[in-house]
Amino acid sequence: MSFVSPGTILVLGGARSGKSRFAEKLVADCGLERHYVATGRAWDEEMRDRIAQHRADRGDLWTTHEEPLDLVDCLSSIDSEGRAILVDCLTLWVTNLMMEELDMAAEFAALAEFLAGAKARIVLVSNEVGLGIVPENRMARDFRDHAGRLHQMIAATAAEVYFVAAGLPLKMKG
Asked: Is 38 annotated as a binding-site member?
């Protein structure tokens, strides 16, 4: 892909690395109307508690949209100048797409195409899962591969890319 998504920022990092907190600060600091797109699903009580805690931590300054599958339609419905949209997180979205056996390449291409023309500033958070050992089962390997391909696609066109570890952001692009 040869286009650049000028308002797109990708924030990668491991679990509990501080990437979401850093992404939220990027959105808050830009001074635009804040929208939060949550892709997680509450499969059990522990996940319901995590979602509730995240919502409480963000407070009333954010408008929350919960969309586990149709990310592009959700983003399209709120895309507007003067807004900043935080998507947390792409790896949960990948999981949801895999569980529904959807066409990953088509979904990824649709997201990249949307980002190329987006009016809002969009910050995407995702777990970097390619730094560890090769997973022992096919589904886990497929997940790692899908996430890696998606990250490469978004990073290639994003205006900025950050890697966060131990709460410290490293600017990789932009």
From this structure: yes
